Automatic annotation (TrEMBL):
Keywords: DNA recombination. Signal peptide: none annotated. The keyword Methyltransferase does not apply. PROSITE patterns: TYR_RECOMBINASE. It comes from the Bacteria. The lineage of its organism: Bacteria, Bacillati, Bacillota, Bacilli, Lactobacillales. GO terms for biological process: DNA integration; DNA recombination. This is Class I integrase. It comes from Enterococcus faecalis.
């Protein structure tokens, strides 16, 4: 309604009303995020299995964003200290998260599956994984090493040149 009054007096009647400009504008309402109950989370996770279930459990248990989970590298998991390093998350910042103890055995199994993929790629002479530009220039062979491999590797290879 305020915008309509400002338009009407300013553009239609060509009248300047400075006091009308001083009226505070209402703040847009902020939507609250949808929060699932623990029972709803259990039901949703019940529909998933294998790698997808582990990925969802990891995101839920740590609060990671999907993109952060997909960019997780082997070297980012520290089982000895119970931490996960998220690199270049929101705002291009790094942070450390607690690794849920309940997921440690499943994550170790996931790493053994990922290692099998990595060994197969190495045997087939595949080019390795992409690295941030500065690291790629400084350590050109790092993308071929196991620590830089993805925890949740894609099951098909990229055709990007």
């Amino acid at each position: 309604a305020l915008a309509a009054l400002l338009f009407f007096y300013g553009k239609v009647l060509c009248t300047d009303l400075p006091w009308l400009q001083e009226i505070g504008r209402p703040r847009p309402s902020r939507r609250l995020p949808v929060v699932l109950t623990p029972d709803e989370v259990v039901r949703i996770l019940g529909f998933l299995e294998g790698e997808h279930r582990l990925f969802a459990q990891l995101l839920y248990g740590t609060g990671m964003r999907i993109s952060e989970g997909l960019q997780l590298r082997v070297k980012d998991l520290d089982f000895d200290h119970g931490t996960i390093i998220v690199r270049e998350g929101k705002g291009s910042k790094d942070r450390a998260l607690m690794l849920p103890e309940s997921l440690a055995p499943s994550l170790r199994e996931q790493l053994s599956r990922a290692r099998a993929w990595w060994l197969k790629d190495q045997a087939e002479g595949r080019s390795g994984v992409a690295l941030p530009d500065a690291l790629e220039r400084k350590y050109p062979r790092a993308g071929h090493s196991w620590p830089w491999f993805w925890v949740f590797a894609q099951h098909t290879h990229s055709t990007d040149p």
